[in-house]
Specification:
Blueprint (H helix, E strand, L loop, with lengths): L7 E3 L5 E3 L4 H9 L4 E5 L3 H9 L4 E4 L3 H4 L11 H12 L6 E5 L9 H15 L3 E3 L7 H9 L4 E6 L5 H4 L9 H17 L3 E5 L3 H10 L4 E4 L7 E4 L1 H4 L16 H17 L6 H4 L7 H7 L1
Parallel strand pairs: 3-4, 3-10, 4-5, 5-6, 6-7, 7-8, 8-9, 9-10
Antiparallel strand pairs: 1-2
Helix pairs in contact: 2-4, 4-5, 5-6, 8-9
The structure holds 3-methyl-2-oxobutanoic acid.
């Protein structure tokens, strides 16, 4: 899929290939009013498919914890796990911009630790940028990461790594005090140099105001239609999660499809319908069988 901001280059075999999407192109899309499509991916085959589908940006979210690894939340996810999954995704992408999500306690304790771990995403996993959660309290750290040349995506509103602080209150910024704090955080993150900001689970009018005020793109999840882009979690989009949040739209029901496929396979193994000689088996050369039987 070609976009107006993608230059086309001729690769050695004479094939035309669209260039990889860059951070400046993401900003240009927003300046031109083109929405940015973002989705999470955690493994190689999924990365190949989302890239082929023309997604602009792929986030290896720490949501790998609760969506793939079977943890109850994102909190237990380690740097090692994030690097492992991000490497798988990197190998599957040709065009989309790749963002690695910094897991809980990989960046909060000191800016030095944050720079080192952000650097691991870039050097070991080949990301184009990192994402981290938090507003005012993370400004100094973000500034320092950006200063060493690592692009940072912010994340404010509902931030899953603070799940135990938020409790059952998922939507943030409904009242005056929290709405003002989120707006202020967004302004501070832009000043600190983020290239984009995820706005999660907040009233759409607040997200609209932030998107209008900021130059850098806002990427919404549960933040209404006026953000500069949208992000969803791949397992939610594909219908692989049990009870997705209200803001999720399921575009397929893979849960049903996968279960039915495995059920059919199991049944055919049990009743001897799979494999067949004609379709799934290999022939031996003529005459060989008789020599074996004679032995
Ligand atoms: O971890 C994740 O998938 C995220 C998205 C919800 C933006 O942070």
């Amino acid at each position: 899929m070609l976009r107006p901001y993608n230059f086309v280059k001729i690769v050695p075999k004479g094939l035309f290939m669209p260039d990889k999407i860059t951070i400046p192109q993401i900003q240009k899309m927003t300046d031109a009013g083109e929405k940015i499509s973002v989705i999470t991916a955690y493994d190689h085959p999924t990365a190949v498919l989302v890239d082929r589908a023309g997604i602009d940006m792929v986030l290896v979210g720490d949501s790998v914890g609760n969506n793939i690894l079977g943890y109850p939340s994102t909190v237990p996810v380690t740097m090692g796990e994030m690097i492992h999954h991000t490497k798988c995704v990197r190998r599957g992408l040709q065009q989309a911009l790749l963002v690695g999500d910094m897991p809980f306690m990989s960046y909060q304790s000191t800016p030095k630790k944050a720079i080192e771990n952000a650097g691991r995403f870039m050097k070991e996993a080949g990301t184009d940028a990192v994402k981290l959660e938090g507003g005012e309290e993370m400004v100094e750290t973000i500034r320092k990461i950006v200063r060493v040349g690592i692009p940072v995506m912010g994340h404010i509103g509902y931030t899953p790594q603070r799940e135990s602080q938020f409790g059952a209150q998922r939507v943030q910024g409904r009242d005056e005090a929290t709405a003002k704090k989120i707006l202020h955080d967004a302004q501070l993150l832009e000043q600190a140099g983020v290239f984009s900001i995820v706005l999660e689970a907040m009233p759409w009018r607040l997200a609209q105001l932030i998107s209008d005020q900021l130059r850098v793109p806002t990427i919404g999840i549960g933040a209404g239609p006026y953000c500069d882009g949208q992000v969803l979690i791949i397992t939610d989009v594909l219908g692989l999660t049990k009870s997705p949040f209200r803001f999720v739209k399921r575009y397929a029901n893979l849960e049903e499809i996968i279960e039915q496929a495995v059920r059919s396979y199991r049944d055919e193994v049990k009743n001897g319908k799979f494999p067949t000689i004609e379709e799934h088996s290999f022939k031996i050369q003529k005459g060989v069988m008789s020599t074996l039987k004679d032995k």
